[in-house]
């Protein structure tokens, strides 16, 4: 296959370039259908004139159809898109990029989905599907899975509806308390959705993500909280997101003193309540009840999900602290930006 691709690139490079353009158009239509031509052109950074000729070609070959609300794929278009997936990943160099990214970050495995979720938010759903597929392959007979919150993690939760968990016993449990923002994006809600979509069990952790040191010491004396924490720390699998430092601080309603610390310390990324600078040094840590950074090395499988060019610095900063067995599932937007910085 690699030799064939090399020969094609040498003999008909324009053909491969054209395929990539049309594949991207089909993929973007699938993610956003029904979608209008103007919006699609903006997403793909193409002129409407160029896009018009391409979609006319795709329509003439019955791969897309025009609807009142916009363009959509035909069944033939969906079949073609699915059939070309591995081939296009190879021609676009995604497999090589995955290996390169894993080496740069010092982790065991990276999975990169096409696109940039900053430009097309529905790319998060593709990240979610990729995470669900990886998780399916890691499941054993009995599993405790601890999860964090976030919009990408919510996409993972929705994607779990389509995996096969027959014969598997799974307990989903939040890694920590609520951070702020929409309830649907909280760890408790995501753990519950994952349990519902897989017919599994879940256990809640109803408390704020940030507590005072005094309150933390009191809560840790509660037998029920300690029992939940024991389950969290004995997890077989951790599914977690990675946040941009200042955005996460705002969601937590961080006090002015701590916000100044983050700004002066040039914090760029956040995970598990720890804030990191570009070099991966810990700038600040919030007082929390739940999974801690030092708990991670004892956990068998750790899967991080985060995408978008804007998350590149955050991902790179956190990964300097991640166990080397970690798996990262991201998108091209983040991956290319991370590699640019090397």
UniProtKB/TrEMBL annotation:
Signal peptide: none annotated. Keywords: DNA-binding, Transcription, Transcription regulation. Pfam families: CggR_N, Sugar-bind. Residues 19-88 form the CggR N-terminal DNA binding domain. It comes from the Bacteria. InterPro entries: CggR_N, NagB/RpiA_transferase-like, SorC_transcr_regulators, Sugar-bd_dom_put, WH-like_DNA-bd_sf, WH_DNA-bd_sf. The keyword DNA-binding applies. Residues 92-340 form the Sugar-binding domain. Belongs to the SorC transcriptional regulatory family. This is Transcriptional regulator.
């Amino acid at each position: 296959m690699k030799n064939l691709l090399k020969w094609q690139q040498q003999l008909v490079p324009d053909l491969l370039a054209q395929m990539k353009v049309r594949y991207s158009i089909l993929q973007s239509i699938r993610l956003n259908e029904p979608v209008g031509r103007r919006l699609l052109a903006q997403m793909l950074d193409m002129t409407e004139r160029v896009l018009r000729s391409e979609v006319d070609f795709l329509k003439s070959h019955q791969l897309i159809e025009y609807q009142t609300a916009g363009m959509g794929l035909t069944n033939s278009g969906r079949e073609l898109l699915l059939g070309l997936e591995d081939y296009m990943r190879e021609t676009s160099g995604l497999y090589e990029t995955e290996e390169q990214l894993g080496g740069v970050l010092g982790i065991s495995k990276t999975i990169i989905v096409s696109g940039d979720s900053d430009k097309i938010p529905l790319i998060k759903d593709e990240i979610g599907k990729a995470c669900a597929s990886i998780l399916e392959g890691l499941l054993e007979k009995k599993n405790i899975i601890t999860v964090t919150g976030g919009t990408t993690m919510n996409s993972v939760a929705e994607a779990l509806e389509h995996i096969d968990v027959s014969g598997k016993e799974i307990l989903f449990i939040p890694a920590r308390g609520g951070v702020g923002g929409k309830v649907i994006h909280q760890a408790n809600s995501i753990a519950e959705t994952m349990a519902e979509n897989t017919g599994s069990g879940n256990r809640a952790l109803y408390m704020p993500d940030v507590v005072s040191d005094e309150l933390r010491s009191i809560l840790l004396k509660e037998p029920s909280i300690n029992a939940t924490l024991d389950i969290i720390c004995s997890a077989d699998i951790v599914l977690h997101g990675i946040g941009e430092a200042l955005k996460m601080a705002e969601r937590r309603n961080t006090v002015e003193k701590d916000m100044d610390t983050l700004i002066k310390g040039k914090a760029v990324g956040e995970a598990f309540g720890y804030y990191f600078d570009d070099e991966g040094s810990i700038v600040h840590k919030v007082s929390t009840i739940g999974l801690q950074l030092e708990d991670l090395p004892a956990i068998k499988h750790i899967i991080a999900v985060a995408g978008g060019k804007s998350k590149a610095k955050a991902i790179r900063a956190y990964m300097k602290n991640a166990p080397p067995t970690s798996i990262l599932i991201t998108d091209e937007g983040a991956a290319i930006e991370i590699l640019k910085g090397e």
